[in-house]
Amino acid sequence: MTAALIFDVDVDAFAERVLGASHATPLLVDFWADWCAPCHAISPHLAQVVADLGGRVRLAKVEVDVGDNMKLAGRYQVRGFPTVMLIRDGDELARFSGARAASWIERWIDEYLPG
User: Which residue from 42, 51, 85, 88 has the highest number of Cβ atoms inside 10 Å of its Cβ?
Assistant: First the structure.
């Protein structure tokens, strides 16, 4: 897992580092909280998927309890944590909530980003 593929992002940099960057490479956005056990459970699975896909997608991690990041969760109507969104060309393609296995996440990505 490299810093180029997985990175933390905040509300101030979201437009550029996620929405803008998604025109070049689709991004997963992980809305998570430190107090959330399922968030910690899914984190290594997301990292594994991103590494296995070798640059096909990148992962932006938004810790909702830091700074004004909860505003992003509100903007995207996130109701629970973790919530993972798939963004391409500045638009949300899909989302899921809760901890999932790496194999499930890969199949989910393939459904929305075939090939």
Answer: 42
Per the structure, the count of domains in the chain is 1
* CATH number of domain containing 44: 3.40.30.10
- Among residues 9, 21, 29, 39, the one annotated as catalytic is 39
Domain carrying residue 85: 6-112
Question: Has residue 73 been placed in a domain?
Answer: yes
pTM of the shown model: 0.95
Told to judge if 39 belongs to the known catalytic residues of this protein, a careful annotator would answer yes
Is residue 50 in some structural domain?
Answer: yes
Q: Clarify whether 106 is annotated catalytic.
A: no
For 13, the token pair is 């940099």
Judge whether 93 lies within some domain: yes
Report CA-CA distances (Å) from 61 to 82, 95, 114, 115. 10, 14, 23, 24
CB 6 within 8 A of CB 59: yes
* pLDDT digit string (tens) for the chain, length 115 residues: 445 899 999 999 999 999 999 999 999 999 999 999 999 999 999 999 999 999 999 999 999 999 999 999 999 999 999 999 999 999 999 999 999 999 999 999 999 998 7
